[in-house]
Amino acid sequence: MAAAVSDSGGDADRYRAARIGLTRILIREVRGLRRLILPSRLRESVPDWITAMDTVIAQYSRTSSALAADFYDAQREAAGVPGPFTVPVADPPPGEQTEASLRWATKDLWPRDPEDPATTAAQLEPIDVRLAQAEKKAEQVAQKLVTDTGRGTVQEAVRQDRQATAWARSAARGACAFCKLLASRGAVYKRETADFRAHDGCHCGVIPVFKGQRFELSDHAREWERIYREFAAPHPGDQLRRFRLALAEHDSNPLPGSY
Fold first, then answer.
1. CA-CA distances (angstroms) from residue 116 to 33, 104, 131?
2. What is the mean pLDDT of residues 24-44?
3. Average pLDDT over residues 182-201
4. How many whole angstroms separate alpha carbon 36 and alpha carbon 180?
5. Using the 8-state DSSP alphabet, how is residue 150 labeled?
6. Is residue 12 within 8 Å of 208, Cβ to Cβ?
7. 163: which of 81, 85, 172, 227 fits an S-S bond (Cβ 3.0–4.6 Å)?
8. What number of other Cβ atoms are within 10 A of residue 241's Cβ?
């Protein structure tokens, strides 16, 4: 059985590259659907756009789950654990979840009364600006829903596999402070640990850990752990802010967004 497993290198890096590649193709397709939203017929065209988006998100979610299942199988084989196991592939997000998320993304499209105190500055922008903002939010919604399906597949496999003991978070070198902080904790997420915490645009992955394995932080995650311990840990209630500031000064990795 393999002695150690890490959040970086080998299968972990290949799996991250596959997820990011899938996201890029997804975003291209999502942008192509933007033409379905007609500013002069929002009430009729937005529901048609949501239906088309739901189909695309479901399709890419299935691919995300399949990639996650292949990754889990590869990690399990590399660990040399005994006995067969079938990864429980996660279903695409329910239609009502996708619709609610896309309704949120497009909530500023609808005309608002400038005199209404509840009307926001974003809702008073010209329609082309509001469309661009809605498109960006929709891309983020689609990316998160699709990526979450893959992450959920690995998490559920860890829960059901008697040979698995925990999971760790794998964050890209250019991830945000929130993701770097959680990734620096290592394999502290046990089999029964609740849902993966992710934000829009998050490319973090789930690394399974099996019986007999020792989890080791990658060099960059170990650096994040050191920075957190030195600059943020002694300040309860202000740790994330201090960690973010310390990363800006001391982290040798790229800035957020450099995936």
1. 32, 20, 21
2. 96
3. 82
4. 38
5. H
6. no
7. 81
8. 12
